[in-house]
Structure formats: C-alpha cells, structure tokens
C-alpha cells in the first residue's frame, strides 16, 4: 500500500451473532440472517439484515423491504401495550391497560356469545400467516364466521387452480426456471412471488430465453419482458381463449398428455333433457369413465393399462356420452374466439395474438426435450424418459381481481394443460403439498352448536349445491355470505363484505368483530369512507351497530382507531411463527419445506404475539383444544402449540425433526421438545428433497405419490385427472336450470347459468351504472412497499412517499394535462382529486397508481403533514363493495359471481383537469396517534 | 492524497444489466443497511417521519421511459452509484486528501476524518455519486463495500458488495474490469457494455449492459407455419378431430 | 447550482478584497499611516470576511487546516495557500506602510502577485468542473473573476481612470461569459442520451425519480427557482456592476458619488454571482430529467 493512503480495516467484525429467521416484510417468506451487534450497553441489537443463502425461497437474495426490516422492527409506530378505547370510535383516543384486563374485556364479550349464538362472533384475520392455527381457534370457539384475506386478494387464481389441476401459482407451484424457454407473465402483484420471480426472470434472461409480459402497465417485470402486451384490463380471458382457439385449430396441443392425464377423454352426459346433463359418467365407485382405446369399452380412468380415447363416445340407456374433449373442440374452435373477433376488445392486434400463439406452439413443440428420468405412472405404465415442453406461465392478482377472474384463471390453467406443460420439465411444477385436487380438500363447514366447536373446518371446496353454507331457510350461514348462491365457490370467504354485511344486519347482526392484521378502515376496504361510517354508526339506542370490535396489530394503523380493544402484536423479529405444511408453506418444486420465526430479540414493550394471545384467550374461554382435561391452559404460548399440537396423529405444524421410534425423523412422528432448537440451528427452516424421478408428473407419478404419503402430505396415494371440465360448476348450472332439491333464488338463476360454465369462458363484467365512465383505473403494488406497511419505514417511505396518478399520453393530451397538474377522477361511486403524471408505456385507456401509499393523518406515527397524507391518495374511495343499483331493488356485490373474489380491477372512471387543491381529496380529519410521533432525524448505528 | 495513481493493480467495479433490472430497489436498501452499520458514519435520514424525509443514499435507482421511433414505449430501471472512474474528477479537486483512489483496486474512497465537507467533490462528479451526510457533515459515497470484499470474517462467497449479494434478479455483477479474462469483462465484451457520459472524460470503471431489443417477436408471417391449421377446409369439428387425433 | 449565500458572499468580497490588495501591493494609492491602515482594513475585511463566509459552506470547518495539503492537484487547496500567503505578505507590507511609512516594493509586488493568484485559483475551482459546462470555460471564467477583481479593486483603491477602463472591460467580459456560457451545455455534448446511454433506442424521458422526496443532489445542483428572470437580472447586474459606476466616475469626483459607485458595483457583482450559481446547470440534473 502506498504510504500516503490511509490505512483502513478491511476485515471489520461483521456482527457479534447471526440469528436466522423468516422475513415478514411481505408475503414471500424469505430466509433472513439477522446480524446482531452489542450496543454500548452490551445488549444484542438488530444491526443488519441480509438474505439467507441456504434458504429454499430466496437463496441469499433479499428485496428492499426485507433489507429495510430493521426500520420496521424499530418503527415508532409500534404499539406498546394493550389498550381500550376511551374516546368515540374513530377518534384514536385510548387508554393503556394490562393484558389481564384486556383478556377480561374480551372474555366478557365473547363468553356469552359462545354460549348462546357463536355466529355473533366474526373472526377475520387479514394477512395472517398462521391460518391453520387461527382457524383452529375459530373452530373451537364454534363460530362459522372465519376467514383470512384470500377473498379480497387472489382466491380466483387459487380456487381456479385447485378445481382445475390441484394447485395454482406461487405457493402452489412455480415455473421450471432451469428449463423453461418461454415464460409468459400475466398481471401479478409483485410479492406473489417476490424474490423467486425476480430470481427466475434473472435466470431466464441469462439464458437469453424469452419473457412475454401481459399487463396494461409496463413496469417492473413487464419492463424487463422482451415483449409487452398492453392488454385492456379484464380481457385476459378472451386473449387466452383466442390463443387456445389458434392452438387447437393448428393441432398444437399435447393430445397424448390430454388423453393420459386429464379429463379430456372422460365421458359426459350429452342429453340436454337429462337431469344429469353435463355430468361425468362414473362407475359404481364414483370413478370417472373413459373409453379404453385398447378394448373400445368403458373403463375407470385409473384402471391399469387403460389408454383413454379422446374421441370415443358411449351410448347407454338412451343417453349419449361424449368425451370432454368434444365439448372443448365445439366451443373453442368456434369463430367467436378467432383473433380477429377478439382483437378490438382486448386491445391487441389479431396478428399479434396469432404471433404469440405461434411462438408458444413453436417453443412447446419444436423445442421439446427429454430428461433421462425413468418413472412409472399411476396406471402402472413405465416411461423411460420425461418429455419437456419448455413453456411456462405465471399470474396472480392482475387477472384474478376481476368479476370474470375465476373463468380467466381457469382459461390460463386450461391453456397450460392443453400444451401439456403442467408438471413436465420446462413447464409449470407444483410445490408440495400440492398437487392436491379439490376433492382432497375439505368442504366448508357451518354446523354450529352453542358452547361447542364447529363441526369442521370453515373453508373448503364445494362440489355441488348440497355443499353450500345455507341455513334451513336458505339464508346465508356465514356473515360474509360465502358459499351461497351469490358466489357458490368462495373458498377463501369474503372478508371485504364482512363489515358492510354486519352493519346492514344481512344476513344477520353480529356482536363482536374480531380482526387481525387487516386495515379495514383504510386501504384494505373498498368504499373506505363508507366503511368508516359503518364502523362508527350507532343505532336508535345510541349503541354502535357493530357493538364490539377487537383488533390485533403490531402497528398504529388506521384500523386501530376504529377498534374498542387493542391486542398489540409483536414485530416479526420478536415472535414465534410457523410457515407450516398445514398452511401456506414455502416448498419448492423439488422439495417440501417449512420454516419458523423465533424471537431473535425479546420485545421491549408490553406486547405479545397474537397467536400467543389467542392461546391465553382460548384457555380463558375454556375452548376445547385450548385447555387440558383439568381446565388449565393447554398451550403456554404459540411456540408451545407449534411443537406439541398434532393435527392428526404424527402430523404437526412442523414437519422437520419429529420424534420417531428410533430417533428424530421428518414428516411423520411424535412431538419433539427440541424441535424449535433444531430449526434454529438449521437456519430457521426445514427442507426435504423429492427424489429424482419423483419430481415431475407428480399427480400421476407413483414414486411421488408414495414419497408424499411417507412425508405425511397424504394418507394414501391420490392420483387424479386434471379437470379441464369442472363438474361442480355444471351442478350449479343444473340447479339453476331447475334440477334438484336445492334451488337458487330466481333472481340469480340467469347469472348462474351464464357464468358457471364448466369449461372456461369469458364474459364482460357487469357494466350496469358505468355509462359515461370509460377509462380503466388500476393500482399496482410497488416492489419496495407491502400494502400500508412501508410508510412507517423511514427508509422505504423515501422511495414512495406519495403516489401520482399515472395517465397514458393520450389521456394527458386530451385533458390538457402535464406532469404535476391535478385531476378530478370520478367513478359511479365517488371522486378523488389527485396529482397526475404522464406514462407512455401504458395501455392507452388505462390509468393507475401505486397502492396503499396514501395514509390517514395521524396514523403510522407520521407527521400530519407527511406527503402520504397530503399528496398520497387511495383509489379505494372510487370502488364500492356493491355494484351500482340495477333497479331490481338489490345491489349486487362487486365480486366474482363464482368465488366472491373482490373485483378491484373492474373500476371504470372519468377524468377532468382541475386546479390544484391544497391537499389531495377526499381529506379526513387527523386521528389521534396512540403512539405519538417518530423522532425528527435518524442516524442509526448499533455497533459504534 | 488527491493525485490519482498512474495505474491501479485492479479495476474493481460493477457491471449493471439494464436488461434485467426490475427496479425493485433491493440494492438501494441493502446498501443503506450495510453502510449505515459499517464504513464511516451512518447514513442519516432527516425528517424521517415528517413532511419532507430526505436521507443519504449511496445508490439510487432511476427509471426512464424511452420512446422508440416506432413501437411501444419502454421503461428502463437504472441503478446508479459511484462508477469508480479511472480519471475521477472528484479525487483531484479534494483540498484535503480525504478523497482518494486506491492503488490496489481503484476503489474511490473518502477518508471521513480528513473530510471538511466542502462539497467540491460532489460538484465535480457528473454522476451524482456523492452525497453529503446532513448529520455528520462529511461526504459519503459508495465504497464498493471495501469492508466486505476482503473481509475475512465473511464467508468467501459473501465477499462482494452488499448490493450485488442482495440483487434478486442477478442484474448486478462485481469483479475486476482491468482483467480482460474476468467474468465481468467477458460480460461487458459479450453484451456491449457502455460507459455513462463518456464525453466527460472520466473513464468510469463501472459498466452498463444495454437492454436487449424489445418487442422483437417476429411478425406472424414468419411464425405462421407453427399455426398451420390441421385441416385446410372448414369441415366442421369432426373433421378437425379426426385429423388432430391422427397425430397421437 | 444552489446559489448559497456563503459562496456568493465569498466570491464577491474576496474578489474585491484581493483586488484592492493587488492595487495596494502595486503602490496604488501610495498611502502610509492611518490612510494606509484604512485601505488595508477595507481590503482585509473583504478578503478575510469572504474567506470566512466560505467556511460557512464547509460541513466541518474545524478541519479547514487540512485544506492546505493538496496543492499539487487541488485548486481549492492552492487557493487556500495563495490566500494565506497573500494575506501574510500583504500584512507585512501593510505594516511597513502603516507603522514605518516604508514601502517595501518587492514585498508589495509579491503580495500583489499572490493576491492575483488567489483570485485566479478561486476562478479555477469553478473553471475546472467539466460537470458544470457553463463554468468550464478555460479563458472566460478566470478572465471574468480577474477582471472584476481588478476593476473592483481599482474602484476601491480610488484609481478613477483605471477603474473606469477596467469596469468597462470587466462588464464586456461578464457579458461574453454569459453569452458563451449559454451555449456551453449543448457544446459539452452531455444530454439524456449520453447520461443514460439509452438514446439509441429512442427518445429518453425521466420517469419516476429514485425517491419521491428531494435529496442532497437536487438541493445542491438542481436550482431552477428565479432562473426565468435571468435576462432581467443580467441587465440589472451589468448596469450596477459597470455602467453606473463608470458614469459616476466620469462625473466630477465626490466621495458620495464614489461610495455610490462602490455600492452599485458590489450589488452588481452580487447579482452576477447569484446568476453564476443559479444559472449553472450541473449535468447530474439530467439523471433527474432536470437542468
């Protein structure tokens, strides 16, 4: 070193200790290394967070949110203590109380409900990552009213995937990043899946493979896509079905795959007069029947050696049965799906649709390849090789959150299946415990007995009208009207309807609303102002219409102010959690995996992990499963539950390091006291790889099926066929046509018949009341922010401190707008006045903004003049949970008529230029912050 | 000392792939985290929870919209930090010798204990790579994680700048651009890596890989053979079925 | 560039102060005793005051002594050294005049030289910056600083003829500096395309900034407020800096008119220096789609 260069320490100590846990800065659940340093007082403090290289999800990388975790963990917005409301609801005036008093208050409200009418409790848990636990609590309580946030997120994608093929994208499966040569991405929220998608795109790009992005907005993943399709929102299904049309017409579909692994050859009743018209032909065991090409005779689909015939028909008892494949050909070869017929509606030239379909065909069939893995299918046939079709797809919210989203998601799953790219090399691959067809999932349960647990899990998959959650009088059994004729297949519930239904007393009134991590009085609701009014509305006796609200959150969110009792949660670095195979695990296509969070630091406030609080409260209420035989508390805390709970004998929340007869084993086994220590010493997670030869063709692969049984994912092998044709939907249609005992109300018959097609269709969403509102309005989630959480983070809020409304060049010009001008945006439901910015790489009839940047003054420990509150805004004000009145006296839910998925992205607006107001509108009075405000300046350094 | 070395043993730097960067800001925050806790003064934030939050960052991700003469507009995310120039004007203007370019590896550093906070180096930098910390009043800049890349307390695989380690899309590469055989040099050669503002004469070490051509899917006419209909004449679906199934 | 008062005051007054010292060092006016003290006091108040003002610009003024070390490469370091040498030499020379009524000519000439070098090195701090094309004018920026310093010094030194002549020259150079400066950014060839290297794809436009809030770079380098009045301010500046003082000097001499001339000149130079910073566009602004 030259003598006049300063000497610097090139090997400073990085930290005093590394503690490995799981991130919770978004839904992605990456592994993190939390570097701890001793502060000047000698206490270990969080100093730096990086990705865990060994972790299956993120393999060392970490996004902006994850790296900013230290600022979240230390945010001034953290709640400090249980609180009870002392001012009027919505004021933010609270008094700190002890946990004992908090439980006392909760028990005073909940105990009488449980003993008389448990449905009076509505327990909804937002962005909960512990649903298998919270649902267990709700079951033990006995209320039918439980769900998490899936209904307003992406239930369409999940349910369409499960019903079609036993799994969907993200937590259910992923592209075969190592082999795919064409990756097509439809609208996706960035954190579904955050780092793995980025890593995957990076991998693909490195190989020079093509990425096609379909999205009205060219940001993020679509910005790096080789080809961008700036589609008109809500028309993805039409575009996909048009590609299906092209591919089928050209015969560029994998007929062998369709015949062997799907219901394409399964026979269905084709007699329109039959009460079973459109239902599968089944044998005495309920097995779907096909015509065997070897014999020309009927055979159960899974009989050994059967070669199902795609064209064989069967006539019995005067009824002709034709294969599903016939129906598909009839439907999709029709010119109504020709590119020329759909181009205008989709905003994509017909030639471009054909070009993309052709490229898909080229890659799927011309670039097919083989892997040298021998495998045996469920019919006993041995295969020497695995054929790869290197085309893969991914999508989440963008196509889900429309009222035609379920059918659109189905169409996308069907496209993958037609190409034969699901569970093959280069295509889409399931992650354990998926594949798992709808029939292997529970059905919804609403059987309620005062003072006793519910008769089974709340949520599940219906298979016909008999599975609906209806009371004897035909009214909804659940407060959110899930699993009713309004939206029969609402597998994740409808959290977005809970408050408005409870307020309206429709289907019934409730007593206590108990919520966790759901900012319902702000960005997590449609019709935000209306929700605030419902939460504060009083009846003729001056009592709140929703009498009690208990809320648990770690931070001073907008919802805190609208609650009566606050149970303060910890930050993610102070808590136990399990990312369980019983729940939404972190598996990879090649491995089963689960993970934990553990308190890498102890809370310095009077707070408690919500799940631990539920253990206490469950015991106080004497809930079965939460008390021992002698009435004492069963689980000391959530960690105790994680280790000792058994869902079925030998199956617990965590699959790793269970106790076998001869020692520790994975998958099945008795509880092991030292289990969490094993997880901690392994970096906070457990992973078990799927053997080669078992890792593709999973639904039909004997080796995979037996591996899954060993792991405890299933109790017996469960091979099945993909359902291009969803028979339960046909059953609902049959009911709407007048068949069967359980009948829909008359006003819904036409809609059920029109929308519940058992083969994917596209329909225009309800445009009633949209006259004069012609512009599509969307939100996107910034990559560096997770919902409303980012704004309390001193680092992240600098990236996105306010959100302009982005307008395409055409609309800027037409309205005489330039950057920094303000515009009034009006929908049939409301109006907002907001700043605008030009964006050229945008569908020319679509405007958009970043989601959940706008904040209520006084929330999140921000100053009242924070840009989030003065310039930021929510699009939510323009969206109503109900559609505009139709004149039939009823207001229909702004949801998918099949699943109840909130139709956030169906919004239509109009724009006018306006003079700049002082602040974005609507304005709301400030909330009183229960935690004060943050410090002025930060100069953060732990290890000085 | 502020005279630039005549040559450096290595030219360590970054290669940033504009074709792959999705604009997630992971590098920005990882950098903030590491450099707040490590080399020199922490990167402070003013008005952190207030009306006008503004902090010190050593790496920021811009975004540009590019409108080709024909076709759709493109959006390109553009991370930018110190380019560790060979002819670093920020070094030679420094009156105290606080700014220097290391002879071993070409990293441009600020010795904070010598910095008087005059700001002239930031004026001299055409790239906006230097930011005066408003708490400590000294100049901060990218150190290329000089306290990581040689750090024997880190596993060898982690001895890269924190922005590179964290980048989810793999859009950031670190290495010796003075060695033509290094992976980064090869990448620059293959992908036509470029200098920013070459006319400023700074000879940046960091290189940018330009985005690959976008929206370049061949016209349908070229791809048409892949969608040749199964049957030429519309003979109804049974005709199609018959033809289609012949392929099994 | 952000027109910080500290740098405006620094360049204006240190220029005037060292300008006066140059004249004093050369023996104009040839004064001794209290009269010399008065001239030297004015020169030192301006020169040292200007230098002190510049330290307000420093984040760590307590370390300012370190700035004398890098004379081999840094114009700022050279300026500091020249200024200190000029002030020391001129102090000795002044002491001779004030206390001993001695005019040590060689010392005076040496002091004048270092004073001139101080002004030159100050100008070079700005001239050297390629990143700010308006300043990066090899001849005109130093000429602008030196001519104003000499003219202002002459005015303060009461050298009516020289001052009139030099004020005219300084005014002309100032105008030339502006006019040529207006073309420098384009000439430098740095634009959005070269900054991003994306120009070969198409027209480049800044989209979302890296952070929605402001930052050090934007505060320091992107200053657009008041630029729209630049032409008016230039006229005002030239009138105050050169035209008015020359007219006043051509009128029959009076101390009052001379004082007005000095005040007008200083005001004119302050306006010019405000423009010098406010109109200077740093190329980094391009990354933010601003100049």
Sum this structure up briefly.
The complex is a heterotrimer of chains A (944), B (248) and C (291). With 944 residues, chain A is of the alpha/beta class.
Relevant CATH superfamily of chain C: Formate dehydrogenase/DMSO reductase domain
- Helix share, percent of chain C: 55-70%
**What's the helical proportion of residues of chain A?**
10-25%
Strand order of the largest sheet of chain A: 5-4-25-24-23-6-7
Q: According to CATH, what is the class of chain C? A: Mainly Alpha
Strand content of chain C: under 5%
Radius of gyration based on Cα positions of chain A: 27 Å
Main features:
heterotrimer, B: 248 residues, alpha+beta, Alpha-Beta Plaits, three-stranded mixed beta sheet, 8 helices, 11 strands, 21% helix, elongated, C: 291 residues, mainly alpha, Formate dehydrogenase/DMSO reductase fold, 68% helix, globular
Architecture blueprint of SSEs:
The complex is a heterotrimer of chains A (about 950), B (about 250) and C (about 290).
Chain A: E1 17-22, E2 31-38, E3 44-51, H1 64-67, H2 69-73, E4 83-85, E5 94-96, H3 99-116, E6 121-124, H4 131-141, E7 146-147, H5 155-165, E8 173-175, E9 182-186, H6 194-206, E10 210-214, H7 220-224, E11 227-229, H8 236-249, H9 255-261, E12 267-269, E13 289-291, E14 298-300, E15 314-316, E16 319-323, H10 324-332, H11 339-346, H12 350-366, E17 369-371, E18 375-376, E19 382-383, E20 386-388, E21 391-394, H13 397-400, H14 405-418, E22 428-430, H15 495-504, E23 512-516, H16 528-536, E24 548-553, E25 565-568, E26 577-579, E27 591-597, H17 610-620, H18 638-644, E28 658-659, E29 664-665, H19 675-681, E30 685-689, H20 702-711, H21 727-736, H22 746-755, E31 775-780, H23 796-799, E32 805-808, H24 809-814, E33 822-826, E34 831-839, E35 846-850, H25 867-870, E36 908-914
Parallel strand pairs in A: 6-7, 6-23, 9-10, 9-21, 10-11, 23-24, 24-25, 31-35, 32-34
Antiparallel strand pairs in A: 1-2, 2-3, 4-5, 4-25, 8-22, 12-16, 13-14, 15-16, 17-20, 18-19, 26-27, 27-30, 28-29, 31-36, 33-34, 33-36
Chain B: E1 12-17, H1 26-37, E2 45-46, E3 54-55, E4 59-67, E5 74-81, H2 89-92, E6 99-101, E7 108-110, H3 120-124, E8 130-132, E9 139-141, H4 146-149, H5 162-166, E10 172-176, H6 183-191, E11 207-209, H7 220-223, H8 236-245
Parallel strand pairs in B: 1-11
Antiparallel strand pairs in B: 1-10, 2-3, 4-5, 6-7, 8-9
Chain C: H1 5-26, H2 33-56, H3 75-100, H4 105-127, H5 140-156, H6 160-188, H7 192-196, E1 203-206, H8 216-221, H9 230-250, H10 255-278
